[in-house]
Design brief:
Helix content of chain B: 55-70%
Largest sheet of chain A: 2 strands, antiparallel
Largest sheet of chain B: none
Number of strands of chain B: 0
Radius of gyration of chain A: 22 Å
Structural class of chain A: mainly alpha
Radius of gyration of chain B: 20 Å
Order of helices and strands of chain B: HHH
CATH architecture of chain B: Orthogonal Bundle
Largest interface: A-B, 39 and 36 residues
Strand order of the largest sheet of chain A: 1-2
Number of helices of chain A: 21
Strand content of chain B: under 5%
Oligomer: heterodimer
Chain lengths: 503, 116
């Protein structure tokens, strides 16, 4: 029974992808099947969260080889909530794709690749082994490579090159770190590593490995100075693709950072803390300044991903129970809000034929519902109470004040104001301003928005409102998850019932 | 002795790979990534410890192999990594080919449309 609840979030997308490949001829089947499979995945993820929250950490050994030799799947509260949010994003973006992804891309097997992506993401959240984490990253990456380059337009290919080459480079660093760590410690099971690295004599070697991993994960998470691939590529593919990328992929990097720093490298965290705090501060500031410069919706939003990643890394860097809870809450809130903003930009793109702020306008008048739906995630991102972003920022700031990190807290507050500036810029330009006159080479269209595009935006906006107004439940869950991370004995004893193996 | 040679060789692969990455040519970018990923593979293989002529086989009457034996895990991992790397490089070469057709040049400095 334990096994099933852990394996379902992996099996459903994998079997779904195979099923969709089997019926690749029928475009209708692809679209309807996607929604059905994504709903199943959502249900399975909900079950996983429920089980983990009630019964504590769940672990199974695939193939029945005892840890640390076997392939460990493990879910604690952090892993479970990440799976649940990614399933929700899969559902929302799956519905959105019905209208947004054209027949040509569906014929090129868009939906099977989409599910392989979710398969990889869920695998990364549920694995208990560093090498398997590498493999899951690759599963996720190669499907994201396909999705980003599927259209074959010039911009997509160019953005794809940047995305692919930097991510491949980070994979190389990841693999190198895995190799050195195995050579040194003789295990890659994360719980076993945590046990062995406590009071490890050769601290310098472990620090260098942890730095290699830190850089590898920071590239994936788009932390300064490794973020350049993100704003160069996320605005090129169709809106549905950039929405799922924006919501999930960088957050897998953040998840890997949280997991490695709280579990594997906890004994040497003091050495890393200063670096992480400063990386986070600079990430927040460069991201938000980059966004201020741009004038196209998706480019602005891409830079805001970078800036928001800074907040999550900052919360991780504080490393108190409250700060970890803030980091988890922030990740969940951010995934929902950011995906939603990209979906709204996709609707604007569909409606007007462009999402360049200089060329669109008058949406408040012509599409008041869309304006309201943009308002909720945008001002949640800016941190306006009572939306979810306010509580997320509040928790980060409060945990920073508790340990006296004044500079970081000041930067976080200032960046919040600048975030609001960008959101009001989009709001003022796209929604309030009158529709600009057609120029010589561009005339804005006014196409009606299909229901399947609005529905997921409503769903995610409702989730944002719900987290904002009844945030207690999720925050209490985040605190319980943070306790599990902070005191990792439960995680370790579930994975290693016999108290760790020997080489 | 062989460890030191391999370590030097890994360093050489990484250095050449990084040098290629820093060039402006798209083809050298591909070669750089190939060299780097081979360097990482070799690193995993070497870091796991080299032991000649001691396969991890269990004798007829015992339960565990007599120490010292070669560790099979790094070899399994490196095989996985080679396969993954092969797939990624194949995809990347195809992508580079298409991008080269679309942009029309090998010079990475011309790939600046999406950054503006």
């Amino acid at each position: 029974m334990n096994g099933l609840v852990l394996v379902l979030p992996l099996l459903i997308p994998l079997l779904g992808a195979i099923l969709l490949l089997g019926f690749a001829r029928s475009l209708r089947f692809q679209r309807v099947g996607t929604v059905v499979i994504a709903s199943l995945l959502m249900a399975a993820a909900g079950w996983l969260v429920y089980e983990v929250d009630c019964k504590g950490v769940i672990a199974i050994q695939i193939g029945d080889w005892a840890a640390p030799f076997g392939i460990t799947l493990v879910a604690d509260r952090l892993g479970a909530i990440m799976v649940a949010v990614s399933a929700l994003m899969g559902l929302a973006v799956g519905i959105f794709s019905i209208a947004d992804i054209d027949d040509d891309r569906v014929k090129k097997k868009f939906f099977p690749v989409f599910f392989v992506l979710l398969f990889g993401v869920n695998g990364a959240f549920l694995t208990g082994d560093l090498f398997n984490l590498y493999v899951w990253f690759e599963v996720m990456l190669i499907s994201s490579f396909v999705l980003i380059g599927l259209g074959g337009k010039k911009d997509e290919l160019e953005g794809g090159i940047k995305y692919v080459s930097l991510n491949l480079f980070s994979s190389v660093l990841f693999l190198a770190a895995v190799g050195i760590l195995y050579g040194e410690v003789g295990t890659l099971n994360m719980a076993d590593l945590a046990v062995k690295l406590e009071n490890y004599p050769e601290v310098n070697l472990i620090i260098s490995t942890s730095m290699l991993l830190l850089v590898a994960f920071c590239i994936k998470a788009a932390v300064f100075p490794f973020f350049f691939w993100l704003p160069a590529s996320y605005h090129t593919p169709p809106a549905a693709v950039s929405a799922i990328f924006a919501g999930l992929l960088t957050k897998v990097g953040v998840y890997a950072l949280i997991r490695s720093q709280t579990l594997i490298f906890r004994p040497i965290f003091d050495e890393v803390q200063v670096i992480l705090i400063w990386l986070a501060i600079i990430t927040m500031i460069t991201g938000v300044l980059g966004a201020a410069r741009h004038f196209e919706m998706r480019r602005i939003l891409s830079f805001h991903i970078v800036s928001q990643i800074g907040y999550m890394v900052l919360a991780l860097a504080f490393m108190t129970p409250l700060a970890l809870a803030a980091a988890i809450f922030y990740v969940v809130h951010h995934i929902i809000v950011k995906t939603n903003l990209f979906l709204v930009s996709g609707i604007v793109l569909h409606k007007k034929g462009t999402s360049d702020l200089a060329l669109v306008g008058g949406l408040y008048k012509s599409a008041p519902l869309l304006a309201a739906l943009f308002f909720i995630p945008a001002f949640s991102l800016g941190g306006i109470p009572p939306l979810s972003g306010f509580w997320a920022k509040f928790a980060v700031v409060k945990s920073g004040l508790e340990i006296g990190e004044w500079i970081a807290v000041g930067a976080a507050l200032a960046v919040g104001v600048l975030t609001l500036f960008s959101m009001t810029k989009i709001w003022g330009e796209a929604f309030w301003k009158a529709q600009p006159k057609p120029t010589a080479d561009f005339t804005a269209t006014d196409r009606p928005t299909p229901f399947v595009m609005i529905a997921p935006v409503v769903l995610l906006a409702a989730a944002t409102l719900f987290i904002g107004l009844y945030g207690n439940g999720l925050f209490a869950f985040s605190e319980r998850a943070a306790e599990q991370l902070f005191d990792n004995r439960e995680y370790i004893s579930t994975v290693l019932p016999q108290g760790g193996g020997t080489k | 002795m062989i460890e030191i040679m391999l370590a030097l060789f890994i360093g050489l692969l990484f250095a050449c790979g990084l040098y290629c990455l820093l060039r402006r040519s798209l083809v050298k970018l591909v070669f750089g990534l190939i060299l780097l990923s081979q360097g990482a593979n070799l690193l995993v293989f070497t870091a796991g410890g080299l032991l000649a002529g001691r396969p991890p086989l269990i004798a007829k009457d015992s339960i565990i192999p007599t120490a010292p034996v070669a560790d099979p895990l790094p070899q399994a991992m490196v095989l996985t990594a080679i396969v993954i790397g092969f797939g990624l490089v194949a995809f990347f070469v195809a992508l580079v080919h298409r991008a080269h057709e679309a942009v029309g040049t090998d010079d990475i400095n011309s790939f600046d449309q999406t950054d503006k």
